[in-house]
Specification:
With about 280 residues, this protein is mainly α. It is about 75% helix and about 0% strand. Strand 1 and strand 2 form a beta hairpin. The two termini are about 30 Å apart.
């Protein structure tokens, strides 16, 4: 769900929107949205429907709703931003960048839009550009925890570990339950040799968000580094299951390949066979 400023024109607080969202969400089938409960000319209704679908994990249907909002109003900046978020989640990074860029062309003073574009740019390895947009987000809103977390990720990617740690810590000062920042901080701490602190933050991230695939995978790597192979394998198993469940097949495949090697190394042949069968079932290669 997108983080919005107090001036956002999203109307989550009204009972009418909540009722229409609940009803509309129930009539989404495949890629088609029935309009029984949505005014076909109401951009905000489609936008809020998309947000509800994103929250419930129906990303492909959310994309349809956001696109419908933009058919009605091509200059609806928030819809461009949220469509960018949905596209980014499905790996359509170049399309996401286009929508974030369009959102910023319409309204360049939204921290959320800069943060989204930073996230997408980082996914393509354009680290310096990502850092610039995270910094712009923080110039607009210094307490934007997502931008602090994103900047931490970019700085970590660039090898600027101490700076990354500072931004993860700042994000956690703002929101102590920000799972992604616990995960990022743990990774940075692990690089500085603080293994025990890193494990604590990975575990905290997973307490907050038990289906956090990246945190399971990172915790698995940390355990492997300390020679705890069986525990590492258990974390990789959960990462694989979470990736597979959310349709992230490439990540699921990589996690599964590591898990199969670990299972064989720890004498868990049945687990190795089970994971191989599951890979075939989901069509991964």
């Amino acid at each position: 769900m997108s983080r919005r400023s107090a001036t956002s024109n999203h109307h989550w607080g009204t009972l009418a929107v909540c009722v229409s969202l609940a009803a509309a969400t129930l009539v989404v089938f495949g890629q088609t949205i029935r309009h029984d409960f949505v005014n076909p000319n109401d951009t905000v209704a489609y936008q809020n429907l998309g947000a509800a679908l994103m929250q419930s994990g129906h990303v492909s249907q959310a994309i349809v709703a956001f696109e419908k909002a933009l058919e009605i109003d091509p200059n609806y900046a928030e819809a461009h931003d949220d469509l960018g978020n949905a596209l980014l989640e499905t790996g359509r990074v170049d399309e996401a960048i286009a929508h974030y860029t369009r959102a910023l062309a319409i309204d360049p003073d939204q921290a959320e839009f800069h943060n989204g574009l930073g996230n997408a740019l980082l996914r393509t390895g354009r680290v310096d550009e990502a850092i610039a947009h995270y910094n712009q987000a923080l110039a607009i809103d210094r307490n934007h925890e997502e931008a602090h977390n994103g900047l931490g990720n970019a700085l970590l990617y660039a090898g600027r570990v101490d700076e990354a740690i500072a931004h993860y810590q700042r994000a956690l000062e703002i929101d102590p339950d920000h799972a992604a920042s616990h995960n990022g901080l743990a990774t940075a701490l692990l690089r500085t040799g603080h293994a025990d602190e890193a494990l604590a933050h990975y575990n905290r991230a997973l307490e907050i968000k038990p289906d956090f695939a990246e945190a399971h995978q990172n915790l698995g790597n940390a355990l492997l580094e300390t020679g705890r192979l069986a525990e590492g394998a258990a974390q990789y198993k959960m990462a694989f299951e979470d990736y597979a469940q959310t349709g992230r097949i490439d990540e699921a495949t990589r996690a599964a390949q590591t898990l199969i090697r670990l299972a064989k190394a720890t004498g868990q042949e049945a687990l190795a066979s089970q994971v191989q069968d599951e890979l075939k079932r989901i069509g991964a290669r």
